[in-house]
Amino acid sequence: MDADGLHLSLDYLGSSGVILSTEQKASLQNSLLLLKNREKFASVELWGKITGIQGEYFIAQGIGNDKLSDRKCHYSTDCRKWAQLPKLDDSARARALKVEGRFMGDASYEAEYIEPPVNSSDPHATGQTVVVREEDRLTAVVDAISHDVAVAPRGAYIKNPQEVVLRNRSFRGLSIAEASNLNSYFHFRPAEELDKKSLIQKANLDKAIDFLDCIEDDIPHGQLHVMLIAMTIITTTSLRYLWLLQL
Amino acid sequence: RPGNRVNMATSEELAFQNAKAYLLKNSTISGINMYDHLSQIINRVLDERPDNAVDVVGDLSRDLKRTAFTKESETIQETESPSGAVALAQAQAKLFEVTTEPEEAEADEDLQPIVPNVAETAFYFEQTGVGLSREETFRIFLALKQLSKDQPMETVRFWGKLFGTLGNYIVAEVEFKDGEGEDEQMEGEEGDADPELPQRDTSEDQEDEEEKADEPPKSQYKPPPVIPREESRMGTNKKIYFVTTEPGIPWVRLPPVTPAQIAMARKTKKFLTGRLDAPIVSNPPFPGNESNYLRAQIQRISAATHVSPINYYQFEEDEEEEEEEARDSFVVNTEYEGMSYKELADPSLSGWVHHVQYILPQGRCVWYNPVQKAEEEFEDEEEEEEREEPDEPEPEKGPPLLTPLSEDTQLEGQPPWSTTLSTSFATSYTIVGIHSNQWPGAHAFAIDRKFENVYVGWGLKYQPGCFQPALPNQGEKEHPVGEDITETDDPTPEEEAALRAAQEGADQEEEEEEEEEEDDD
After folding, report:
1. Does the structure show a pLDDT above 50 at B198?
2. For chain B, how far is it from start to end, CA to CA, in angstroms?
3. What is the CA radius of gyration of chain A?
4. In this structure, are strands A83-84 and A110-114 parallel, antiparallel, or unpaired?
5. Whether complex ipTM tops 0.90
6. What are the backbone angles phi and psi of residue B158, rounded to the nearest 5°?
7. Inter-chain touch B423–A17, beta carbons under 8 Å
């Protein structure tokens, strides 16, 4: 959620148990503004927090011109100092995602797991031990969560003729009927399933608005649920990750 | 060619007619249409011939619209069906009504309030980063107050909030006054069906002995004895729980929990849906529906994560210590002074104790020996001698009440609880919060002489890796395999022919022998 209106947006999520302490909110208001200024972002959004055993990670995304692809992730353990998350190549990402168990809370912690032996005729062969830094694991997990669960309502973002994704200033929100329907939400990530649609389906799409994958096309169904909280606020929760909420 | 020209004319005509029809469409808002309006403007302009007509055409248009006749009232009234939000708000409006008379309010002030200061607890939790929004907490407080008025209870507490896929649950923990709150319908409920009583079989045997030989063999299966649930106010049923989906909707009482339900809840992992009558589909089959599953999970969470600072509760001193019986009650220590934040936030967690009894693997807090009762039930059975006596099961033991958290088992090297301080800037005012890693969502805080527990989560225990439900049982054997019932292959045609040939050969030899004997005579 945007750092400018953080207080207000967080209030809406309170009924789902997502709250920050007063100290954290005060620190974030201050440090996010400084981060935006330092890195020359167009805007900064608080992505969320990941709770480890000994500490927590707060993740913020700095956004440039293109709201979809121009995002840089930063993390912090105390809401004051922010560091950029490293970039990973595919093999490092695959390794990082194999680590099991909770995060520690310390960015320099190194987790290990044992790679099962491949094509080995020896039944007692143990695989190699692979070491993964917690920072790398954090990047991989944040990207995986965003890929699976980041959601935007239909019409909130538009793609201009130069193929830049922008916030739609004329978006007035969804009506209650539209909001309860899964069809009105898209995955907020570079489209993967759009090309697989038939030409007839694509003919009905508006190129400026419908440039993302729809949630309803997810297989298996039922991964994302829309719930009306107190009949006024819509939360979509992903059962896979148990958290990602969208107003 | 003439054909083409006709076609073009028709298509132009068609386009013209479409355009005119479109212009003749009446507006839904004002009832006039474009065609008539434009013709009125042109008429006016031609009549009045103003200077620079094109610049004032906008004013002309507005003028014409203003002077047109419009109906004031619509004969068809729009009835708005009340939206869900309005219905909920009306239900919640009742919560906000102040119902006590001023004289009653004065009398109430002397009595200790039943409903605790939920807002204060929520504030402390908020400082540790846990809880719900302030407005919701206030509504929950009002709903608890309403509950305490409806039912005669001793204490009530906000236990927590459980999330579901289609709706959430807000849970209140209630302890009724002595003698009150026994719901007779609840007492009569039984869990699973009792094992079939054998008395029916004996009467049949006496009558139909002749047919006994033809009857198919009866099943030898004896289901394991049903372990009875604990009485109200004891063990797993010490407290009663009420749930509601939103504050304002009437509270629903959850049924008492049986050991079978807790044992099954331990083996399965399900999301709640938000409907109390939803079925729970699992293997092994869960005895009950979502209300029973919810109650079992609430009990498991309470037993595992309800903690208090050490010495807050004490055992009563006048009880003699008996080694065999576990103590199950305690009192508040009036001389509790509070502990420093360092002791409470110590990672070894020796400053905290559990104050809810541990649930044994059997599903109860006090162990129940199933063998004794089984002998009484099967007294009349004829086959008692043939039945093997099961070995006496060993009594299950768990850690006693008020065990410090340092005794909790670690999961794969990760500590069972994490601690946080609400602020690192002011150590004299900091609130210590601890969060369970076994049941993510269970939290507790302590400061000075105050402490409290809450659960805000999905009702799922932490499990590294994926959950795998139990595989279905092996099918039972149809009949015992023995000498009189053995499966063998049918003889092949070759074997049959060989057998027949051997048989004929033997017969022939006999005939020849007989013939020889006759010849001999």
Report:
1. no
2. 129
3. 20
4. unpaired
5. no
6. -80, 110
7. no
Cross-chain residue pair B464–A19, CB shorter than 8 Å: no
Q: Please, are residues B137 and B119 in contact by the beta-carbon 8 Å criterion?
A: yes
Residues of B with CB under 8 A from a CB of A: 83-85, 87-88, 126-136, 161, 163, 165-168, 246, 271, 412, 414-415, 418, 422-423, 425, 435, 437, 441, 456-458, 464-465
Answer whether the bond into residue A220 is a cis peptide, omega within 30°: yes
CA atoms within 13 A on the CB side of B252: 18
- From chain B, the residues in CB contact with A19 under 8 A are 126, 129-133
pTM: 0.75
pLDDT higher than 90, residue A239: no
The distance of A181 to chain B (nearest Cα, Å) reads: 13
B-chain residues within 8 Å CB-CB of A242? 458
Which residues fall within 8 angstroms of residue B332, CB to CB, at 6 or more apart?
A: B312, B313, B314
Cα distances (angstroms) measured from residue B297 to each of A190, B47, B251, B273, B457: 40, 85, 18, 14, 12
Residues forming beta bridges with residue B455, ordered by sequence position: B160, B442
**At B69, which amino acid appears?**
F
> How far is it, in rounded angstroms, from Cα A100 to Cα A97?
8
Nearest-Cα residue of chain B relative to residue A8? B133
The answer to whether B137 and B123 are in contact (CB under 8 A) is no
Q: What is the mean pLDDT of residues B139-167?
A: 87
- How confident is the model over B36-95, as pLDDT tens digits? 889 999 998 999 888 888 888 888 888 888 887 766 666 677 766 666 777 778 888 888
Task: Round to whole Å and give the CA distance between B127 and B496.
Answer: 89
Is residue A171 within 8 Å of residue A184, measured between CB atoms? Answer: no
Ramachandran class of A101: left when φ > 0, alpha when ψ lies in -120 to 50, beta otherwise: left
Distance CA B247, CA A76 (A): 36
Question: What pLDDT is recorded for position A241?
Answer: 43
Number of Cβ within a 10 Å radius of residue A193 = 13
How close, in Å, is residue A87 to chain B by CA atoms?
A: 26
Which of A121, A115, A151 minimizes the C-alpha distance to A223?
A: A151
Q: Do B456 and A17 touch (CB under 8 A)?
A: yes
Task: Judge: A19–B126 Cβ closer than 8 Å, yes or no.
Answer: yes
Can you give the pLDDT at residue B383? 40
Neighboring chain B residues of A102 at a CB cutoff of 8 Å: 414, 437
What single string gives the DSSP state of each residue in B88-119?
A: HHHHHHHHT-----HHHHHHHHHSPPSS--HH
Is beta strand A151-153 parallel, antiparallel or unpaired with respect to A56-63?
unpaired
pLDDT at A242: 40
pLDDT at B101 over 90: no
Q: What is the 3-state secondary structure (H, E, C) of B208-246?
A: CCHHHHCCCCCCCCCCCCCCCCCCCCCHHHCCEEEEECC
Query: What is the three-class DSSP state of B78?
Result: coil
Backbone φ, ψ for residue A130 (5° rounding): -110, 135
Q: Identify the H or E element spanning B159.
A: strand B153-162
Residue B257 and residue B277: Cα distance in Å, rounded? 16
Number of Cβ pairs < 8 A linking chain A and chain B? 80
**CA–CA distance, B356 with B347 (Å, rounded to integer):** 22
Q: In angstroms, how far is CA A125 from the centroid of its own chain?
A: 39
B477/A187: higher pLDDT? A187
Read off the tokens for B352.
């905290």
Contacts (Cβ under 8 Å, ≥6 apart) of A86: A135, A136, A139
- The pLDDT score that the predictor gives to residue B291 is 93
Exposure string over B445-458, b if 16+ CB within 10 A, otherwise e: bbbeeebbbbbbbb
